[in-house]
Predict the 3D structure of the following.
Amino acid sequence: MGKVKRGITVVSVAVCAFAGAADKTLFRDDFDGDLSHWRGLGGGWSVEAGVGADGSRALVWRTPKDGKKPSLLQYPLTAFRPGMKLEVSCRAKIVEAGAKPPPAKLCDIEWWDLEGKWSGGAGMGFEAIFSRLPVDGEGWSEIRFEVPHLQSDVSRSVFEFFTLPASSGVVAVDDLLVRVIDRRALTMPVSSAYRGKSREGSVSFSSGLGFDPKDTPIDTLRCTFTFKGASGDMRTVSADEICRRWARVTLKTEDFAVGVNDVRVTLSTLEGKTLDSRTIPFERLAPGAKMPRVYLDGCGRAIVNGRRFFPLGMFWHDGDLKEMPDVLELYAKGPFNCLQTYDMPMNTDILDKFWKHGLYVMPTLCSKTYLLNSMKKRPRYSNVAPLPGLETEEDARAELARYVNSLKRHPAVLAWYTSDEFFPWMGPLYAQRAELIRRIDPDHPHYGVGNMEAYVPYLRGGFDVFGIDYYCIRMRGDSPELLEPDRAAVWRGVEKLEKMRDACGGILHQWPVPQAYARGWDYRRSMKNEEWRKLRFPTAKEFRAMCWQYIAAGANGLVHYAYGQMLHWNRKAKIFGDEEFRESWKAVCDASAEVKAQIPVILKDEGPKPRNVPADARVRTWRDDDAVYALICNLKPRPLSGTVDIDFAGRGLERLTGGGTVARSVKGLTFGLGPFEHALVKIPRASAED
């Protein structure tokens, strides 16, 4: 059957419909009609006759003459509105294989917030197309991926074809379709309850918002949460917080009836018109119900064998123990209580060695066992290679089950490491594998790491706690703010962490990954790339600032990257001298020791919410029966002073750690901090006599 000639079609989707919107075509093109809507033809992209399906015209990417620049082709999605959930489909094939692997990305949708800043993107690349998807008799693969409901702070969106530099070959694309598969004003209901269950403590519920602020100002909306109360009556409470992206409420587990509850979230106008309603499942466990050996409470704190625990450790690299037997003893002398094994194949004998030193371990599943079936016959086009003898999904699941079963009862296991900078279209596979592991081993959480905030909602089903691994210390001389050792943009990690949390409805339990090494000097040197000589390690001040800034932004664990890169590669390749390693290692240990000394404070209950916090500061509080504790961080490489309001009747002030000046004021605390400086203080509770 011949190809239907349809050119380009754009359909405006009604902006008033929310829940249950029918399928609508947002944009369609088979490249046989007018091309004036595309921005960027040339520079590698063109439309050619005879290469499409059934000999029609198709979009073609060829190695550009200037291979040092990305090739970008865009179409503005002018008919898009916040709250839409999109599906993209097209066909693609490699017409001619190049000397280098195909580009890492092919097609995606990108979006920007109301302030004009990039806020997300989703798509699929060649490593998916040509190693994971079926290829028909003519060499075509069908690409299909979804974009989640775009939230209310999204102002514009584009579809784009994008290829990275240093790629070669010829690729054809045909039959592009972008359609709306849903429209919601409430976009992503989530809760802070560990796997939807809680026995005690606080629990937060949230839903992303997808209304159009141009049509519906936020101050004209009301969001409520309805649930079955402890006495059996139905209760309705208003959101504690509502912003452009989400609405959230925090309640006590004891407020709920024992058993399974559906918490209904309703968004309405102040006049009472309902815009959307969704439910979040929640189960209140009976008092005394058995909890997993390791889980996360409603505040995101790890609970290990019934006690609060703050993971403080580093990533390890494959082969450390085998090639350098002394590395474990060196690490064990540091202030750490755990480690993450990155790509090290694990067994109980290795776990015994770690446990002998009192170290908990997060064995990896992502690079050895988690995506075993992903490559099929063409591992060249992907970042994870299959293990020999595993050909089918059944093989992969059986091997994953065997591996988890072999380790799950060992006392050293803290969590499973399940994701390492993978891509949004892997979300369904992540969720499937995570469900399998949870059935086999309900006693340990799943830990994932990434640096793209837009990807987190896709992959959320595959992890319970997430770590941002944005490495902000790069090359000497990259930009004016990086010219001096202490002027690196370390605060960008905190900004990423907060964007990731916002992308998940304001609820995301996090163990961030402070940068402990010179980003890329290991693989750049192995590639004989002279750029590695321009790279540098974080200074002691920068690394210390990263740790405390993450904690101030809500982190309940830190796993630095990476012991393997710092030690293994240095000893193996002698890239830098031992003195530089010792200085960097000391900086990591000193900052970690300072954090370790304050873990009893960091694991206390949340304190009063700070108000009027300066833009360049982050403030976090804790409390117990005797005092309130406040951590204040200056994010930037310049002095900062201000006053933070904290609603607490206290007396006196005691400094626990950090620098600068902090004093009591009428409303809270007045502070003055130097570049990247922090201060942690204790405010004793006022007595009746006071």
Observations:
- The first strand starts at residue 8 and ends at 9.
- The CA atoms of residues 438 and 532 lie 41 Å apart.
- Residues 1-6, 11-17, 372-385, 477-483 have pLDDT under 50 and may be disordered.
